[in-house]
Design brief:
This protein is mainly alpha-helical and 448 residues long. It has helices at residues 2-27, 37-47, 55-119, 127-150, 155-180, 185-219, 225-228, 230-250, 256-288, 290-316, 321-338, 345-366, 370-378, 385-445. The two termini are 69 Å apart.
Length: 448
Protein backbone atom coordinates (compact mmCIF):
# COMPACT_ATOMS: atom_id res chain seq x y z
CA UNK A 1 0.00 0.00 0.00
CA UNK A 2 2.71 2.31 0.92
CA UNK A 3 4.66 1.25 -2.16
CA UNK A 4 1.64 1.77 -4.39
CA UNK A 5 1.14 5.09 -2.93
CA UNK A 6 4.81 5.95 -3.45
CA UNK A 7 4.57 4.70 -6.99
CA UNK A 8 1.50 6.76 -7.59
CA UNK A 9 3.15 9.79 -6.31
CA UNK A 10 6.24 9.17 -8.37
CA UNK A 11 4.32 8.81 -11.63
CA UNK A 12 3.23 12.37 -12.03
CA UNK A 13 6.77 13.44 -11.31
CA UNK A 14 8.13 11.07 -13.93
CA UNK A 15 5.41 12.10 -16.34
CA UNK A 16 6.26 15.84 -15.93
CA UNK A 17 9.87 15.11 -16.24
CA UNK A 18 9.17 13.15 -19.37
CA UNK A 19 7.17 15.95 -20.90
CA UNK A 20 9.79 18.54 -20.29
CA UNK A 21 12.21 17.27 -22.96
CA UNK A 22 9.35 16.90 -25.37
CA UNK A 23 8.16 20.34 -24.67
CA UNK A 24 11.70 21.62 -24.98
CA UNK A 25 12.05 19.74 -28.24
CA UNK A 26 8.91 21.40 -29.55
CA UNK A 27 9.61 24.91 -28.32
CA UNK A 28 13.43 25.27 -28.17
CA UNK A 29 15.39 23.58 -30.92
CA UNK A 30 18.76 22.10 -30.37
CA UNK A 31 21.84 24.12 -31.17
CA UNK A 32 22.22 24.58 -34.88
CA UNK A 33 18.48 24.08 -35.48
CA UNK A 34 16.52 26.74 -37.36
CA UNK A 35 13.15 28.26 -36.65
CA UNK A 36 13.20 28.64 -32.87
CA UNK A 37 11.67 31.55 -31.04
CA UNK A 38 14.95 33.48 -30.88
CA UNK A 39 15.48 33.07 -34.61
CA UNK A 40 11.91 34.05 -35.29
CA UNK A 41 12.31 37.11 -33.17
CA UNK A 42 15.51 38.08 -35.04
CA UNK A 43 13.86 37.49 -38.39
CA UNK A 44 10.94 39.70 -37.50
CA UNK A 45 13.29 42.45 -36.38
CA UNK A 46 15.30 42.33 -39.63
CA UNK A 47 12.35 42.29 -41.97
CA UNK A 48 11.21 45.52 -40.36
CA UNK A 49 14.04 47.33 -42.24
CA UNK A 50 13.84 47.66 -46.07
CA UNK A 51 17.44 46.80 -46.86
CA UNK A 52 20.17 44.32 -46.19
CA UNK A 53 22.94 44.68 -43.65
CA UNK A 54 25.27 46.36 -46.23
CA UNK A 55 22.78 49.15 -46.98
CA UNK A 56 24.71 51.90 -45.08
CA UNK A 57 27.79 51.19 -47.19
CA UNK A 58 25.71 51.18 -50.35
CA UNK A 59 24.09 54.47 -49.37
CA UNK A 60 27.48 56.02 -48.56
CA UNK A 61 28.72 55.20 -52.03
CA UNK A 62 25.70 56.77 -53.71
CA UNK A 63 25.89 59.78 -51.42
CA UNK A 64 29.48 60.39 -52.44
CA UNK A 65 28.71 59.85 -56.13
CA UNK A 66 25.67 62.16 -56.15
CA UNK A 67 27.44 64.97 -54.31
CA UNK A 68 30.58 64.60 -56.45
CA UNK A 69 28.68 64.70 -59.73
CA UNK A 70 26.75 67.77 -58.54
CA UNK A 71 30.00 69.52 -57.66
CA UNK A 72 31.66 68.53 -60.94
CA UNK A 73 28.64 69.76 -62.92
CA UNK A 74 28.76 73.02 -60.96
CA UNK A 75 32.47 73.40 -61.58
CA UNK A 76 32.20 72.77 -65.31
CA UNK A 77 29.24 75.11 -65.67
CA UNK A 78 31.00 77.84 -63.72
CA UNK A 79 34.17 77.46 -65.77
CA UNK A 80 32.24 77.80 -69.04
CA UNK A 81 30.40 80.87 -67.75
CA UNK A 82 33.65 82.38 -66.49
CA UNK A 83 35.21 81.79 -69.89
CA UNK A 84 32.30 83.63 -71.52
CA UNK A 85 32.63 86.48 -69.02
CA UNK A 86 36.33 86.75 -69.74
CA UNK A 87 35.53 86.67 -73.46
CA UNK A 88 33.25 89.69 -73.10
CA UNK A 89 36.00 91.59 -71.28
CA UNK A 90 38.53 90.63 -73.94
CA UNK A 91 36.11 91.59 -76.71
CA UNK A 92 35.76 95.08 -75.27
CA UNK A 93 39.53 95.50 -75.05
CA UNK A 94 40.14 93.99 -78.49
CA UNK A 95 37.48 96.20 -80.07
CA UNK A 96 39.07 99.28 -78.52
CA UNK A 97 42.44 98.14 -79.89
CA UNK A 98 40.89 97.57 -83.30
CA UNK A 99 39.63 101.15 -83.30
CA UNK A 100 43.14 102.35 -82.39
CA UNK A 101 44.94 100.57 -85.21
CA UNK A 102 42.26 101.56 -87.70
CA UNK A 103 42.69 105.16 -86.57
CA UNK A 104 46.45 104.87 -87.16
CA UNK A 105 45.81 103.83 -90.75
CA UNK A 106 43.27 106.58 -91.34
CA UNK A 107 45.52 109.26 -89.87
CA UNK A 108 48.48 108.12 -91.96
CA UNK A 109 46.46 108.33 -95.14
CA UNK A 110 44.93 111.61 -94.04
CA UNK A 111 48.40 113.05 -93.45
CA UNK A 112 49.46 111.87 -96.89
CA UNK A 113 46.36 113.38 -98.48
CA UNK A 114 47.01 116.71 -96.76
CA UNK A 115 50.68 116.74 -97.71
CA UNK A 116 50.08 115.89 -101.35
CA UNK A 117 47.28 118.41 -101.64
CA UNK A 118 49.40 121.15 -100.04
CA UNK A 119 52.27 120.22 -102.37
CA UNK A 120 50.16 121.35 -105.32
CA UNK A 121 50.11 124.94 -104.04
CA UNK A 122 53.87 125.27 -104.40
CA UNK A 123 56.16 127.31 -102.19
CA UNK A 124 55.02 127.67 -98.60
CA UNK A 125 51.95 125.46 -98.11
CA UNK A 126 48.84 126.88 -96.39
CA UNK A 127 49.26 127.13 -92.62
CA UNK A 128 45.95 125.39 -91.99
CA UNK A 129 46.93 122.34 -94.01
CA UNK A 130 50.38 122.28 -92.45
CA UNK A 131 48.82 122.29 -88.97
CA UNK A 132 46.38 119.54 -89.96
CA UNK A 133 49.26 117.44 -91.33
CA UNK A 134 51.28 117.83 -88.14
CA UNK A 135 48.22 117.06 -86.03
CA UNK A 136 47.53 113.86 -87.97
CA UNK A 137 51.10 112.61 -87.50
CA UNK A 138 51.08 113.55 -83.81
CA UNK A 139 47.86 111.55 -83.44
CA UNK A 140 49.56 108.59 -85.14
CA UNK A 141 52.42 108.66 -82.64
CA UNK A 142 50.11 109.01 -79.65
CA UNK A 143 47.81 106.22 -80.83
CA UNK A 144 50.73 103.88 -81.51
CA UNK A 145 51.95 104.43 -77.94
CA UNK A 146 48.50 103.73 -76.51
CA UNK A 147 48.13 100.64 -78.68
CA UNK A 148 51.49 99.25 -77.58
CA UNK A 149 50.52 99.66 -73.93
CA UNK A 150 47.07 98.15 -74.42
CA UNK A 151 48.07 95.02 -76.35
CA UNK A 152 51.55 93.48 -75.77
CA UNK A 153 51.05 91.13 -78.73
CA UNK A 154 51.09 94.14 -81.07
CA UNK A 155 54.26 95.77 -79.78
CA UNK A 156 56.70 94.24 -82.27
CA UNK A 157 54.55 95.21 -85.25
CA UNK A 158 54.00 98.69 -83.81
CA UNK A 159 57.75 99.15 -83.37
CA UNK A 160 58.30 98.27 -87.03
CA UNK A 161 55.45 100.58 -87.99
CA UNK A 162 57.04 103.43 -86.03
CA UNK A 163 60.23 103.05 -88.06
CA UNK A 164 58.25 103.02 -91.31
CA UNK A 165 56.42 106.19 -90.28
CA UNK A 166 59.72 107.86 -89.44
CA UNK A 167 61.04 106.98 -92.90
CA UNK A 168 57.87 108.41 -94.47
CA UNK A 169 58.03 111.67 -92.57
CA UNK A 170 61.73 112.09 -93.39
CA UNK A 171 61.07 111.67 -97.11
CA UNK A 172 58.07 113.97 -96.93
CA UNK A 173 60.11 116.70 -95.23
CA UNK A 174 62.67 116.50 -98.04
CA UNK A 175 59.84 116.78 -100.55
CA UNK A 176 58.36 119.82 -98.83
CA UNK A 177 61.73 121.52 -98.39
CA UNK A 178 62.55 121.17 -102.09
CA UNK A 179 59.05 122.19 -103.11
CA UNK A 180 59.29 125.41 -101.10
CA UNK A 181 62.42 126.27 -103.08
CA UNK A 182 60.83 125.29 -106.37
CA UNK A 183 63.12 122.32 -107.02
CA UNK A 184 61.52 119.66 -109.25
CA UNK A 185 63.21 116.92 -107.21
CA UNK A 186 60.61 117.61 -104.53
CA UNK A 187 58.03 115.68 -106.57
CA UNK A 188 60.35 112.66 -106.65
CA UNK A 189 60.71 112.72 -102.87
CA UNK A 190 56.95 113.06 -102.54
CA UNK A 191 56.31 110.03 -104.72
CA UNK A 192 58.94 108.12 -102.80
CA UNK A 193 57.28 108.99 -99.49
CA UNK A 194 53.76 108.07 -100.65
CA UNK A 195 54.92 104.86 -102.32
CA UNK A 196 56.89 103.83 -99.24
CA UNK A 197 53.89 104.54 -97.03
CA UNK A 198 51.72 102.19 -99.05
CA UNK A 199 54.32 99.47 -99.53
CA UNK A 200 55.76 99.36 -96.02
CA UNK A 201 53.72 101.13 -93.36
CA UNK A 202 50.18 100.37 -94.48
CA UNK A 203 50.71 96.59 -94.84
CA UNK A 204 51.89 96.56 -91.21
CA UNK A 205 48.76 98.42 -90.15
CA UNK A 206 46.58 96.08 -92.21
CA UNK A 207 48.10 93.08 -90.41
CA UNK A 208 47.39 94.72 -87.07
CA UNK A 209 43.81 95.42 -88.11
CA UNK A 210 43.31 91.83 -89.23
CA UNK A 211 44.81 90.40 -86.03
CA UNK A 212 42.69 92.56 -83.72
CA UNK A 213 39.58 91.99 -85.77
CA UNK A 214 40.10 88.24 -85.45
CA UNK A 215 40.71 88.53 -81.70
CA UNK A 216 37.59 90.57 -81.12
CA UNK A 217 35.43 88.27 -83.24
CA UNK A 218 36.75 85.20 -81.44
CA UNK A 219 36.08 86.83 -78.08
CA UNK A 220 32.52 87.60 -79.17
CA UNK A 221 31.83 83.93 -79.97
CA UNK A 222 30.79 82.44 -76.59
CA UNK A 223 29.75 78.84 -76.04
CA UNK A 224 26.11 78.19 -76.99
CA UNK A 225 23.77 78.00 -74.03
CA UNK A 226 22.87 74.42 -74.94
CA UNK A 227 26.49 73.42 -74.37
CA UNK A 228 26.69 75.32 -71.09
CA UNK A 229 23.74 73.43 -69.52
CA UNK A 230 25.00 69.95 -70.50
CA UNK A 231 26.85 69.34 -67.19
CA UNK A 232 23.73 70.34 -65.30
CA UNK A 233 21.61 67.96 -67.35
CA UNK A 234 23.97 65.09 -66.53
CA UNK A 235 23.86 65.96 -62.83
CA UNK A 236 20.08 66.23 -62.90
CA UNK A 237 19.78 62.85 -64.59
CA UNK A 238 21.91 61.20 -61.91
CA UNK A 239 19.87 62.77 -59.11
CA UNK A 240 16.65 61.45 -60.65
CA UNK A 241 18.20 57.98 -60.89
CA UNK A 242 19.37 58.09 -57.24
CA UNK A 243 15.88 59.11 -56.13
CA UNK A 244 14.44 56.11 -57.96
CA UNK A 245 16.92 53.75 -56.29
CA UNK A 246 16.04 55.11 -52.88
CA UNK A 247 12.34 54.82 -53.65
CA UNK A 248 12.68 51.12 -54.47
CA UNK A 249 14.75 50.41 -51.35
CA UNK A 250 12.75 52.38 -48.82
CA UNK A 251 9.28 52.40 -50.38
CA UNK A 252 9.23 56.18 -50.32
CA UNK A 253 8.55 57.93 -53.59
CA UNK A 254 10.60 61.06 -52.89
CA UNK A 255 13.77 61.78 -50.94
CA UNK A 256 13.45 65.39 -49.77
CA UNK A 257 17.17 66.16 -49.93
CA UNK A 258 17.59 64.68 -53.40
CA UNK A 259 14.49 66.52 -54.65
CA UNK A 260 15.85 69.83 -53.33
CA UNK A 261 19.18 69.03 -55.00
CA UNK A 262 17.42 68.41 -58.31
CA UNK A 263 15.56 71.71 -57.99
CA UNK A 264 18.80 73.57 -57.18
CA UNK A 265 20.41 71.97 -60.25
CA UNK A 266 17.52 73.19 -62.38
CA UNK A 267 18.04 76.70 -61.00
CA UNK A 268 21.75 76.50 -61.82
CA UNK A 269 20.97 75.37 -65.36
CA UNK A 270 18.42 78.15 -65.83
CA UNK A 271 20.85 80.82 -64.65
CA UNK A 272 23.67 79.41 -66.77
CA UNK A 273 21.49 79.17 -69.85
CA UNK A 274 20.14 82.68 -69.30
CA UNK A 275 23.62 84.15 -68.88
CA UNK A 276 25.19 82.32 -71.84
CA UNK A 277 22.18 82.84 -74.10
CA UNK A 278 21.95 86.53 -73.24
CA UNK A 279 25.63 87.10 -73.92
CA UNK A 280 25.44 85.19 -77.17
CA UNK A 281 22.49 87.27 -78.35
CA UNK A 282 24.22 90.51 -77.36
CA UNK A 283 27.42 89.54 -79.15
CA UNK A 284 25.50 88.58 -82.27
CA UNK A 285 23.65 91.90 -82.20
CA UNK A 286 26.90 93.84 -81.84
CA UNK A 287 28.67 91.91 -84.59
CA UNK A 288 25.87 92.76 -87.00
CA UNK A 289 25.37 96.29 -85.69
CA UNK A 290 27.80 98.76 -84.14
CA UNK A 291 30.86 96.49 -84.45
CA UNK A 292 30.23 96.09 -88.19
CA UNK A 293 29.90 99.87 -88.43
CA UNK A 294 33.31 100.27 -86.76
CA UNK A 295 34.96 97.94 -89.26
CA UNK A 296 33.18 99.15 -92.40
CA UNK A 297 33.38 102.81 -91.44
CA UNK A 298 37.12 102.68 -90.83
CA UNK A 299 37.68 100.87 -94.13
CA UNK A 300 35.57 103.46 -95.96
CA UNK A 301 37.40 106.36 -94.31
CA UNK A 302 40.83 104.89 -95.11
CA UNK A 303 39.82 104.35 -98.73
CA UNK A 304 38.43 107.87 -98.98
CA UNK A 305 41.70 109.40 -97.76
CA UNK A 306 43.62 107.17 -100.13
CA UNK A 307 41.44 108.40 -102.98
CA UNK A 308 42.04 112.04 -102.02
CA UNK A 309 45.81 111.47 -101.95
CA UNK A 310 45.71 109.84 -105.38
CA UNK A 311 43.74 112.79 -106.68
CA UNK A 312 46.63 115.08 -105.73
CA UNK A 313 49.29 112.64 -106.95
CA UNK A 314 47.54 112.59 -110.31
CA UNK A 315 48.06 116.33 -110.66
CA UNK A 316 51.58 116.28 -109.24
CA UNK A 317 52.70 113.56 -111.67
CA UNK A 318 51.81 115.19 -114.94
CA UNK A 319 51.36 112.71 -117.71
CA UNK A 320 50.67 109.83 -115.29
CA UNK A 321 47.10 110.79 -114.50
CA UNK A 322 45.62 107.56 -115.79
CA UNK A 323 47.70 105.48 -113.38
CA UNK A 324 46.56 107.40 -110.29
CA UNK A 325 43.00 107.62 -111.57
CA UNK A 326 42.80 103.83 -111.57
CA UNK A 327 43.95 103.84 -107.96
CA UNK A 328 41.33 106.51 -107.19
CA UNK A 329 38.62 104.40 -108.77
CA UNK A 330 39.68 101.31 -106.79
CA UNK A 331 39.49 103.30 -103.55
CA UNK A 332 36.16 104.78 -104.63
CA UNK A 333 34.72 101.30 -105.19
CA UNK A 334 35.68 100.37 -101.62
CA UNK A 335 34.02 103.46 -100.21
CA UNK A 336 30.81 102.82 -102.15
CA UNK A 337 30.72 99.18 -101.11
CA UNK A 338 31.23 99.90 -97.40
CA UNK A 339 28.94 102.93 -97.30
CA UNK A 340 26.01 101.03 -98.77
CA UNK A 341 24.67 99.94 -95.36
CA UNK A 342 22.11 101.84 -93.30
CA UNK A 343 24.65 102.85 -90.64
CA UNK A 344 26.82 104.64 -93.20
CA UNK A 345 24.06 105.95 -95.44
CA UNK A 346 24.90 109.56 -94.57
CA UNK A 347 28.45 109.04 -95.80
CA UNK A 348 27.16 107.75 -99.11
CA UNK A 349 25.65 111.14 -99.97
CA UNK A 350 28.79 113.00 -98.89
CA UNK A 351 30.92 110.71 -101.01
CA UNK A 352 28.73 111.38 -104.02
CA UNK A 353 29.24 115.12 -103.56
CA UNK A 354 32.99 114.70 -103.38
CA UNK A 355 32.96 112.32 -106.36
CA UNK A 356 31.24 114.95 -108.50
CA UNK A 357 33.85 117.54 -107.51
CA UNK A 358 36.63 115.07 -108.35
CA UNK A 359 35.08 114.36 -111.73
CA UNK A 360 35.33 118.09 -112.60
CA UNK A 361 39.04 118.01 -111.72
CA UNK A 362 39.56 115.02 -114.02
CA UNK A 363 37.78 116.78 -116.88
CA UNK A 364 39.94 119.89 -116.45
CA UNK A 365 43.16 117.87 -116.26
CA UNK A 366 42.25 115.72 -119.24
CA UNK A 367 41.42 118.82 -121.29
CA UNK A 368 44.85 120.26 -120.57
CA UNK A 369 43.70 122.87 -118.06
CA UNK A 370 46.16 121.75 -115.41
CA UNK A 371 46.27 125.06 -113.54
CA UNK A 372 42.50 125.16 -113.32
CA UNK A 373 42.46 121.54 -112.13
CA UNK A 374 44.98 122.39 -109.38
CA UNK A 375 42.89 125.37 -108.30
CA UNK A 376 39.81 123.18 -108.12
CA UNK A 377 41.71 120.55 -106.09
CA UNK A 378 43.22 123.01 -103.61
CA UNK A 379 40.36 125.47 -103.23
CA UNK A 380 38.68 125.64 -99.84
CA UNK A 381 35.44 127.11 -101.18
CA UNK A 382 32.19 125.56 -99.97
CA UNK A 383 31.63 123.76 -103.29
CA UNK A 384 35.24 122.63 -103.75
CA UNK A 385 36.66 119.13 -103.77
CA UNK A 386 38.55 119.81 -100.54
CA UNK A 387 35.45 121.06 -98.73
CA UNK A 388 33.40 118.09 -99.89
CA UNK A 389 36.11 115.68 -98.81
CA UNK A 390 36.53 117.33 -95.41
CA UNK A 391 32.79 116.96 -94.75
CA UNK A 392 32.99 113.29 -95.77
CA UNK A 393 36.01 112.58 -93.57
CA UNK A 394 34.51 114.34 -90.55
CA UNK A 395 31.22 112.48 -91.01
CA UNK A 396 32.90 109.08 -91.23
CA UNK A 397 35.09 109.81 -88.21
CA UNK A 398 32.06 110.66 -86.09
CA UNK A 399 30.17 107.54 -87.17
CA UNK A 400 33.13 105.26 -86.43
CA UNK A 401 33.88 106.87 -83.07
CA UNK A 402 30.25 106.62 -81.95
CA UNK A 403 29.96 103.00 -83.09
CA UNK A 404 33.18 102.04 -81.32
CA UNK A 405 31.99 103.66 -78.10
CA UNK A 406 28.63 101.88 -78.30
CA UNK A 407 30.32 98.53 -78.86
CA UNK A 408 32.75 98.75 -75.97
CA UNK A 409 30.11 100.24 -73.65
CA UNK A 410 27.68 97.43 -74.41
CA UNK A 411 30.32 94.77 -73.78
CA UNK A 412 31.45 96.36 -70.52
CA UNK A 413 28.01 97.20 -69.13
CA UNK A 414 26.79 93.60 -69.46
CA UNK A 415 29.63 92.19 -67.37
CA UNK A 416 28.09 93.07 -63.98
CA UNK A 417 24.80 91.30 -64.67
CA UNK A 418 26.59 88.32 -66.19
CA UNK A 419 28.89 87.99 -63.18
CA UNK A 420 25.92 88.12 -60.80
CA UNK A 421 24.22 85.30 -62.73
CA UNK A 422 27.46 83.31 -62.66
CA UNK A 423 27.77 83.63 -58.86
CA UNK A 424 24.13 82.69 -58.31
CA UNK A 425 24.58 79.62 -60.51
CA UNK A 426 27.62 78.64 -58.45
CA UNK A 427 25.68 78.99 -55.19
CA UNK A 428 22.80 76.92 -56.60
CA UNK A 429 25.20 74.17 -57.70
CA UNK A 430 26.89 73.99 -54.29
CA UNK A 431 23.47 73.90 -52.63
CA UNK A 432 22.54 70.98 -54.89
CA UNK A 433 25.58 68.98 -53.79
CA UNK A 434 24.92 69.75 -50.11
CA UNK A 435 21.24 68.79 -50.37
CA UNK A 436 22.02 65.51 -52.10
CA UNK A 437 24.55 64.65 -49.39
CA UNK A 438 22.13 65.51 -46.59
CA UNK A 439 19.18 63.71 -48.17
CA UNK A 440 21.03 60.39 -48.43
CA UNK A 441 22.66 60.89 -45.02
CA UNK A 442 19.17 60.90 -43.50
CA UNK A 443 18.61 57.36 -44.75
CA UNK A 444 21.98 56.26 -43.38
CA UNK A 445 21.14 57.68 -39.96
CA UNK A 446 18.19 55.30 -39.75
CA UNK A 447 20.69 52.50 -39.29
CA UNK A 448 22.56 54.13 -36.42
Amino acid sequence: MSQSSGSAQAAPTTSYAGQSPAASGAGAPAPGAVGGPAAASTTVGRTAKPATSNTPGWLSQWRLLAASVALIATGLTTLMLFSTWQGARSAAADTAQLVRVQTIKVDLLRADALATNAFLVGGLEPAQQRAAYDSALAEVERTMTDAAQAQPADRAALAALSEAVLTYTSSMELARANNRQGFPVGAAYLNQASTGLRSTALPLVDNLVAANQQRSRDAMSPLPWLVVIVPGLIGLGLLVYVNQLLARRFKRRLNVGVVIAAFATLVMMALAGLAAGGQGSEDSRLLKGSYATVVDGAIARSAANDAKANESLRLISRGSGATYEKKWEAAAATVVAKASGDSLSSASGLWQTYGEAHHKIVILDTAGSWDDAVKAATSTAADSSTAAFTALDDGLRKVVDDAGLRTTSALESGQTVFLAELLLALVAGIAAAASAWRGISTRIEEYA
